[in-house]
Amino acid sequence: VQLQASGGGLVQAGGSLTLSCAASGITFSINPVGWYRQAPGKQRDLIAAITKGGSTNYANSVKGRFTISRDNAKNTVYLQMNSLKPEDTAVYYCSSPGYGWGKGTLVTVSS
User: Fold this and answer.
1) Is the model's pLDDT at 1 over the cut of 80?
2) Which of 44, 63, 86, 107 has the most Cβ atoms closer than 10 angstroms to its Cβ?
3) Cα 87 to Cα 35, 42, 51, 76, 95, distances in angstroms
């Protein structure tokens, strides 16, 4: 099982992107999923999470700008990112406890 993040790219400050997290072998509706990011030279941090019950939590750095959501029919978790800032530049990963790390997706926000 590997979770695969996609949807990254280059965007100007103030812009928006939507990341997707898909996987086979795991059912997102019954597993919590988190979005993490790692900027160059920094540790990987949890920025958004959704529980199996659908509750969401956010890091203060993204609260009010990012939204995590889940489509059970598509077995996909999304991260809608609005009002992007240069400091949001990082590799973004999705993960669920016990399922390790898949390949991340790079988000670059230009000023």
Assistant:
1) no
2) 107
3) 16, 12, 26, 26, 22
Structure tokens at 109: 């926000």
- Rounded-to-integer distance, Cα 5 and Cα 91, Å: 10
Residue range 78-93: average pLDDT?
98
SS3 25: coil
SS (H, E, C) the chain: CCCEEECCEEEECCCCEEEEEECCCCCHHHCCEEEEEECCCCCEEEEEEECCCCCEEECCCCCCCEEEEEECCCCEEEEEECCCCHHHCEEEEEECCCCCCCCCEEEEEEC
| First-to-final CA distance of the chain | 37
Enter the tokens of residue 57: 């939590």
At residue 51, does pLDDT exceed 90? yes
**Residue among 110, 98, 99 at smallest CA distance from 1:** 99
